[in-house]
Amino acid sequence: AEVSAWFSPMTIDPRVGGAYSFDPHDPHFEGVIAAIEPPRRIRYGGPTSHGPQGYWEFRLEPVAGGTRMVFVQHSQPGAFHRPEWPLDPPESAQDTPWRPGTLAGWHAAFDGLGELLDGQPGGSDARKRWAELSEVYRQHMRRAMP
Prior knowledge:
It contains 4 helices and 6 strands. The protein is α+β, with helices and mostly antiparallel strands and 146 residues long.
């Protein structure tokens, strides 16, 4: 329920091997729970578009004055397949899983989570800035390409 409030409506069977789905209409955002250590860590195996060894992982770590969230998205090299998502920027490597819009989406989701944790309505400002954030990430990707 909490993830649905700041990220995307989801269903989850919260145990290792349990199924999850972030979007019941898109099989690219479903898989099985690969690791779970409540309340500090969860690893969502998949999503399927990132290969059998791909995952999303959220970890919470205590720090002075609060908690740090660490997020890792791992795509199995060569496994990303979303033909409906053209390369962006077009000069990207053919098998890159990264798209400026995806990075901007994570940015907006995490900003929205911060707003919710601060007692504000989540997602208000960052989601409005998605196009601006996408361009920032597009330029960063261009600078970082070999």
